[in-house]
Amino acid sequence: MPARTMAAKIWEDHVVVAHPGEPDLLYVDLHLVHEVTSPQAFESLRLNNRRVRRPDLTLATMDHDVPTLGGRAAADEIAERQMAALEENCRREGIPLFGMGSSRQGIVHVIGPELGLTQPGLLIVCGDSHTSTHGAFGALAFGIGTSEVEHVLATQCLRQRRPKVMAVTVEGELPVGVTAKDVALGIIGRIGVDGGRGHVIEYRGSTIRGLSMEGRMTVCNMTIEGGARAGMIAPDEKTFKYLKGREHAPRGEQWDEAISRWSALATDADALFDREVSIDAARLEPYVTWGTNPGQSVPVTGRVPDPTSETDQRALRYMALEPGTAIESIPIDRVFIGSCTNARLEDLRIAATVVRGHTVHPKVRAMVVPGSASVKRQAEVEGLDAVFREAGFEWRDAGCSMCLGMNPDILGPGERCASTSNRNFEGRQGSGGRTHLVSPPMAAAAAIAGHLVDVREFN
Amino acid sequence: MEPFIRVSGVLAPLDRANVDTDQIIPKQFLKRIERSGYGPFLFYDWRRQGDFILDRAEYRGAAVLVTGANFGCGSSREHAPWSLLDAGFRAVIAPSFADIFKSNSLRCGLLPVELPESVVRQLIDLAMEEPGMEATVDLETQVVSLPPRGEGSGWGVNFSIDPFFRDCLLSGLDEIALTLREEAQIARFEATRPAWLPAAV
Questions:
Q1: Which tens digit of pLDDT belongs to each residue from A85-119?
Q2: Contacting B residues, span 15-54, partner chain A, CB-CB under 8 Å
Q3: Smallest Cβ distance to A198: which of B75, B99, B107?
Q4: Considering only CB atoms, which chain A residues are within 8 Å of B23?
Q5: What is the mean pLDDT of chain B?
Q6: pLDDT of B151 above 90
Q7: Would you tell me how many other CB atoms lie within 10 Å of the CB of residue A398?
Q8: Which residues of A touch B73 (CB under 8 A)?
């Protein structure tokens, strides 16, 4: 057997049929479903008299539309209809659903790992581009559209052309104040927003191995912002430790069998990648995006650039920023700590460390939206909610919230936000809103200072 | 899916790179549970700002969009190609497309045509200089062509596309029906899956 990459091993393990000239037909181990990208798929199934093949390998939750304050009654009529459609579709097809009010509800990419459903070696799909998050466990996980959602519901399979594999190696110790989010922004800044197009990215190197599972999820989560559909990290002791004892993790002898399988997944020593990029961790800094795509970032100590391309100049106009402005002098109106990128317990802990003993700047409205009901509970057990509330943060219920503003949480026109989410696209957080992507500690510090600020100099 | 063989229609230019799915169809319109009716919301925010190029009379009813690299980056929302289709577009020409957008488009009948950056530049310039100009995208012959203008002759350029999806588009094939024919293979594969693999129930 020739040396293979982890992506190749997982791919080959899932080929059901490979007809010459056609894309491979792959078997899907876990299909995650949410309210926004599934209703048309279920409807089309019904119109074609088809059923869901494996409801037991399908899990649904509500996350995009859900209000984070005031419960379901706070949802608008159209969102309510979409959530009701998911309930009806899951009921009819026997698909487990963690809806609003469930103790297991949460952002789909937060609950999969939490429940122990996200495991090494699996092929995981979801009608959501941030499905790449699950690759942190050494799974092959990628976002799909509604037509593909329907295909997976009907057949538990997906027809795919094999992507190329790109290695992104980050070596060295992370400087103080530099988080997994900055690793992600640093990588995207380097390869560009379409640098990973057509590829799966495997993140490697001592820096990546040194990250916690939460940090690895943050890095894999942002893979799509660099253009690659999937990002992955070889499973190791940290992965196994995270999974052991979780609700859906294997137990007893099956655990041992799983470990031996998982341990064989890593890329073979002399396997070849289609492309390789190396990054020195020592040169990474806390980043802030200045533009309208996640590749447009500078270190927090830097200045707004003076770009020449029409795309970049357009971004600056939208962001209402002047070239040469010191990033730390940019005042902000809102702070959002949340999203599938940065709303796990570790993210809230780090943010709370910065916030403790301080007060949110009087001109800033700041909110914390935990990634799941479980994260919220655990944070409350640790008293993090009190730290945030006492400082003046709003402490909300779990959901995607202001990452994309499908629920009532949105920016007003012209409002400027320091956000731990993943996309700073025009209008993403609310029509006319301006987003600066940052790490959780940077967002927390900005909330207190009232402007973007270097968390390393803060306090 | 409606078959795609060839389409002729007005060529509309959108001279921007990295057009993301949030611009193509903003999130507030994703709460609908229908598959159609997204056309009026295409490029909603840009249109609302006024003087948006695609709203000029000469480009009304355009069937082919020509635009910058990495078109459709961002989210997996198939509402993006649906909204383009619903607004009357059948093909988009760009130097490159984001992976998920391309896959979605191929599966819902919007043809993503990749052409070299220099050729796309030429098409964008032409469509701006001669608004209302028509283009033909022929999937059978894999050619994008412009009719003869003035004294000059016509113009055509070949494009390549995944042969499997070309066949699916040409015949309007139901990909699910095709996969369901592999039932025996799927069942055989399922039988080999280890018992400890997770189930959601």
A1: 999 999 999 999 999 999 999 999 999 999 999 99
A2: 15-18, 20, 22-23, 26-28, 30-35, 45
A3: B99
A4: 425-427
A5: 96
A6: no
A7: 27
A8: 193-194, 227, 293
Residues 6+ apart with CB under 8 A from A172: A206, A207, A280, A281, A282
Structure tokens at A181: 């989010």
pLDDT given for residue A458 in this prediction:
86
The predicted pLDDT at position A1 comes to 79
Question: Count H helices, E strands: chain B?
Answer: 8, 7
Q: How far apart are CA A73 and CA B160, in angstroms?
A: 51
Which tens digits make up the pLDDT trace of A26-56? 999 999 999 999 999 999 999 999 999 999 9
Query: Could you say which residues of chain A have pLDDT below 50?
Result: none
Question: Contact at 8 Å (CB) between B78 and A145?
Answer: yes
Between CA A160 and CA B106 the distance in angstroms is 12
B160 interface with A at CB cutoff 8 Å: no
Surface of B (49-88) touching A: CB under 8 A: 68-70, 73-78
User: Is 0.90 topped by the overall pTM?
Assistant: yes
Q: Which residue of B has its CA nearest to A413?
A: B45
Q: List helix spans (H) across A306-423.
A: 310-319, 345-355, 373-381, 384-391
pLDDT over threshold 80, residue B139: yes
Return the residue matching tokens 């809806």: A99
Question: Taking residues B95-123, what's their average pLDDT?
Answer: 98
Q: Count chain A–chain B contacts defined by CB atoms under 8 A.
A: 198
**d(CA B150, nearest CA chain A) in Å:** 32
Taking the alpha carbons of B31, B32, B36, B41 in that order, is the dihedral positive or negative?
Answer: negative
What does the alpha-carbon distance between residue B32 and residue A40 come to, in Å, rounded to a whole number?
9
Q: Is the pLDDT of residue B144 over 80?
A: yes
Query: What is the b/e burial string over B101-133, where b = at least 16 CB atoms within 10 angstroms of the residue's CB?
Result: bbbbbbbbbbbbbbbeeebbebbbebbbeebeb
| Non-local CB neighbours of A25 within 8 Å, separated by 6+ positions | A15, A16, A17, A18, A157, A158, A159, B179, B182, B185, B186
Residue B88 C-alpha, separation from nearest chain A C-alpha, in angstroms: 20
